[in-house]
Structure formats: C-alpha cells, structure tokens
Amino acid sequence: KLFFTDYGNAAKVERCDMDGMNRTWIVDSKIEQPTALALDLINKYVYWLDIYLESVEVVDYQGRRRQTITKGRQIRHLCGLAVFENYLYAINSDNLSILRVNRYNGTDVQALARLDNAKEIRVYQKRTQAAVRSHACEADPYGVPGGCSHLCLLSSSYKARTCRCRTGFILGSDGRSCK
C-alpha cells in the first residue's frame, strides 16, 4: 500500500495500492494541513503532523482508533516524521534539531542532535522490511520486471501487478508492452 496526505480543497490522509487503484480516505475530518506522515508497519498505524491544528495524531490503517499524541505551538515548526520503537522523530525547522517524542502519550520530548539543512527523517530497521520470497514484479527469465516493458507496479497484493508506461507511451493490448 501507498499512504499519503493531501491538503488541497479537502485535507485528508489516504491510502491506495501501489498502482494507484483502490484509493481510500483514512482521515477526512478534523484535519487541516497534514504535512508529514509515518507508518508503524508492524502494528499497522499511520501517524501524521497537522501544522495548522498544531497536532500529531494516529489512526490504524482503516482510519479507526484515532488518537491525538500531542498538541501545541511547537508542532508548527516540525517537518518530516518517522516512527521507531516507542518514539516519533521529527525535524524542528525552527532550530534544526531532531526531536524525539514518546509516541504513546506525547511525553519525554527531547532534542537529540542539531542538523544543518534537514527537512526529512527516516529510520531504517530490518524488522520493518517485509520478507517476501517472490512477487509479481520479479524479473522474468529475460530480466524484465514482471514482464512489463517499462514499469511494474505491485497491485492489491504482492502476487498481483499492473504494467504502466513512461510518459509519451501507451500500454499495448497485451497489458505488458509499451508503444
């Protein structure tokens, strides 16, 4: 799944399949300007910053069990968001520090380090990387991902895929080659 925020005409947090299909609103009320998003892949939670409402909130992947983690003026200076173990991490654009906050109750707020131009933060951890033996976009015997001539996008599961073409090309009737 792909998770994303939008604060155009109607602010929301959404999800869809990697090929753009099955687009679903997860949060579409009491939200104004969601600017950063982080996923807890193990427990299936979505965290986001709303700099207009000055809050950090969380819901499950279906948009249920919504909770406010923390609120306050300090939120308007945050950008980027990552989750790791018991904490959320964000960049404070006001003083360029990495901020750590307890993700369950918003306490234990600490500035950890100062960075010079950071706008985003990521945590890479082996446990959060899904182990899949095979998937629909694996290279075929000719080295072509999923048999798609240009792009292979996973669909509703790792066993399904959609082929897409680069700009200026049209997908052929075989659903794999681009013309």
Automatic annotation (TrEMBL):
InterPro entries: 6-blade_b-propeller_TolB-like, Cueball_EGF_LRP_Nidogen, LDLR_classB_rpt. Pfam families: FXa_inhibition (PF14670), Ldl_recept_b (PF00058). GO terms for molecular function: Wnt receptor activity; Wnt-protein binding. GO terms for biological process: canonical Wnt signaling pathway. One of its GO terms (cellular component) is plasma membrane. LDL-receptor class B repeats lie at residues 1-43. It comes from the Eukaryota. PANTHER family: EGF-LIKE DOMAIN-CONTAINING PROTEIN, VITELLOGENIN RECEPTOR-LIKE PROTEIN-RELATED-RELATED. This is LRP1B protein.
